[in-house]
Amino acid sequence: LDTPAYKGTVSINTGLFINGQWLKSVEPEKLECCPDMVYTATGRIITSVEGGCSKDIDIAVDVAEKAYKTSWGLKVPGSTRGQMLLNLANLIEKNADEFAALEALNCGKPFSKAQREIAGCIEEFKYYAGWADKIHGKTIETTENKMAYTRHEPYGVVAAIIPWNVAMTMLSWKLAPALAAGNTIILKPSELTPLSALKFASLVNEAGIPPGVINIVNGTGSAVGEAMAYHPRIRKLAFTGSTLTGRKIQEASAKSNLKAITLELGGKSPNIIFDDANLEQTIKWASLGIFANMGQACCAGSRIFVQEGIYDEFIKGFAATAHHLQQNTGDPFSGKTLHGPQISSVQFDRIMGYINSGKTDGAHVLSGGERDGNEGYFIKPTIFTEVKPSMKIAQEEIFGPVGVVMKFKTEEEVIEMANNTTYGLACGIFTENVSRAIRVAHALDAGTAWINTYFTIETMVPFGGYKQSGTGREQGEYALENYTQVKAVHINI
Ligand code: NAD
Asked: What ipTM does this complex have?
């Protein structure tokens, strides 16, 4: 590539990474196993990669099981596992710009934003490298001649299924804690964005990770994802994606081996702006909240509730940020681009469908509301006002650059409106009144509350959803609970 943002090569192996080797699918004749990769800024195909099928998952489970029993888990000291995670962090760092270029190519996000994502991913591996030798149970004194202790044991073979919007972030959020806790893993990237995961796989052997500990099997949800969800010897599955797919995964687990499931699902997060908020800061955060990553964020602040006293000033400034992004929309590699294309033609059509439904339902288009240009999947940053809570655009996750603004009068009223959703991932609260900020944060059904900020994600702070936004927590010490099971050992002295 010779672009203003990135000059250099990108190289990946397009196979399935199983047992430290690059393999072809054992059922290559299946059409759905070979997805084409599209550069979303132009809609043109850039490469094709191997996609797996259920028999490939059987092979991956066999090797991951063997690796768990012989060369990982409690067979090696935690400090050794930690060192290997550090090696991975260092190798990603060494190749950081190539990773960012692959993300920009595969997902269409501006190169500079992809660079920031890779930096977070490196942090993640470093953080859990530190945990690998600090996972332990407790001693519990019961009576004079009895005692018990607990062990935090790994599951063995775990699986991870991730989405396309922040592919490397999701990869690191799953792999780093699972490996630190001593599990071996099979990870399926989204069939839309496997390129960075394939690059990552090419570093695994160099990091000294024994064969079979990390297996990366690309493929579709129906060919590979389902096989993982139903597999009787996978003990634990961590999933990030839509609520619809999360439901299917729970069903598959219920019908197979009742594997432990962690779900990080969709959202329709409220962002609440009170009259006394710092207007300039609030506009900046609200804009980031809905338009970051082209609105393709699970915790996007997509329902923006604005108190009546600040409403006019807020929407004026908010619309200006949308126009600014629109003026800086374009090629992810231009070096100046702030807003890129959507992930695929399917998502593009879906988002345009929501925009049209907002118009038909009578909401007012304050900015955007249409495609941008004729090539690729660009949509103008869109803001709807005069939105009623019952409208489809106010209820459903759009997963695109579409914010809906609603006016409110009182704190009680906005809490009720904000909680009127099946989701509960995150919320934003903007006010200079600290008591109100905390009161509202506690009253909202959300796994994360941001006060006078938005999208602050920290490696050491848990992240996850209430209600139909998921179960379980990623990040921080909490994520280790996802990947360990507690055994109680009783002793009669
Ligand atoms: P998706 O549910 O369509 O796909 C996610 C993954 O599941 C992909 O790898 C896909 O191949 C796989 N899959 C699809 N059907 C499957 C099946 N039947 N069995 C097993 N696996 C299957 O979601 P997406 O479109 O890739 O991502 C967007 C969604 O992800 C949004 O709803 C977003 O909110 C959510 N998301 C949530 C978080 C979070 O942390 N809560 C983070 C990022 C994205």
From this structure: 0.95
Which ligand 1 atom sits closest to the C-alpha of 463? 40
CB 311 within 8 A of CB 278: no
DSSP letter for 461, please: S
Backbone angles phi, psi at 304, to 5 degrees: -105, 115
State pTM to two decimals. 0.97
Q: What is the pLDDT of residue 27?
A: 84
pLDDT tens per residue across span 447-458: 999 999 999 999
Tell which residue, 46, 21, 56, 40, has the closest CA to residue 219: 56
Q: Is the CB of 191 under 6 A from ligand 1?
A: yes
Q: Is 298 in the pocket of ligand 1 (CB under 6 A)?
A: yes
State the Cα–Cα distance between residues 82 and 132, nearest whole angstrom.
5
Does residue 386 carry a catalytic annotation?
Answer: no
Task: Please identify every stretch of the chain with a pLDDT value under 70, giving residue numbers as ranges.
Answer: 29-35
Q: What is the pLDDT of residues 366-413, one digit of tens each?
A: 999 999 998 889 999 999 999 999 999 999 999 999 999 999 999 999
Given the residues 264, 370, 412, 477, select the one marked as catalytic.
Answer: 264
